[in-house]
Specification:
Blueprint lengths: L1 E3 L2 E5 L4 E7 L9 E3 L22 E4 L12 E3 L2 E6 L1 H9 L7 E5 L5 E3 L3 E3 L3 H10 L3 E2 L7 E3 L2 E4 L6 H13 L3 E3 L10 E4 L4 H6 L10 E3 L3
Parallel strand pairs: 4-7, 5-8
Antiparallel strand pairs: 1-6, 2-3, 3-8, 5-7, 9-16, 10-14, 10-15, 11-13, 12-13, 12-15
């Protein structure tokens, strides 16, 4: 895909430089935009919204491609969608991807944190549920669930994808729900071990909604 009309964009909160452009040259038969998580159905954008008014989606280049200055044009066929899954889904459904604006960022500038989730069970009930599912309080593991500053680990889970499959089960059964304000303080909040940027390259399925808090973001 060819990008033209490129200009620098400063993500003030993250102190990162991106490159503002658009997807006017998008070709669905050639260009690959890798998504990484599902959208929340009740938050879907309703019909009749003008795509032209959308905030730009944020896309990462792959690690082997670096954009470090503004030029008249830039080309790449593979990108990773960081922020804007609902906007992308709506534009794709309306066959209007070419109307989307975007901000390109270099892969080295991508950082990922975990969304906070609220437990919809009593604390003891939730801890008993974790125990029944094979989780135990342990400081030995690197992949697990953090609750009340303690890590709960399942020794049968060996990778981040398996952990997030369990997270999907919890969400689908409404045992947990995402907290959209990640600064909220509560004794019933949990978080999952966050992905690292390289996981975005390797994951071959869509993660459950709100699995990642990726920066830079608008």
């Amino acid at each position: 895909m060819k990008f033209t009309n490129i200009e620098k964009y400063h993500f003030k909160s993250d102190n990162v430089i991106g490159f503002l452009s658009d997807l006017s040259h998008f070709n669905s038969e050639i260009d690959q935009i890798k998504l990484h998580e599902e959208t929340i159905v009740k938050n879907e954008i309703q019909a009749g919204v003008d795509v032209i008014n959308f905030e730009p989606i944020v896309l990462s280049l792959y690690p082997d491609v670096i954009l470090d200055n503004v030029s008249e044009s830039f080309e790449t066929e593979k990108l990773i969608l960081l922020d804007g899954h609902h906007r992308w889904k709506y534009a794709n459904r309306q066959n209007l991807i070419d109307k989307l604006r975007c901000i390109l960022v270099n892969f080295k500038d991508v950082k990922i944190e975990s969304y906070l989730f609220n437990i919809n069970l009593d604390t003891d009930e939730f801890l008993n549920f974790l125990h029944d599912e094979g989780y135990s309080n342990s400081n030995q593991g690197t992949i697990g669930i953090t609750f009340s500053n303690e890590m709960y680990v399942n020794n049968n889970i060996s990778n981040i994808s398996e952990l997030y499959n369990f997270k999907k089960t919890l969400q689908d059964n409404e045992i947990i729900t995402p907290i959209l304000d990640n600064k909220e303080d509560s004794s019933k909040l949990i978080k999952f071990t966050p992905l690292n940027p390289n996981d975005l390259l390797n994951v071959n399925h869509l993660l459950p909604p709100k699995s990642t808090w990726i920066t830079p973001r608008i």
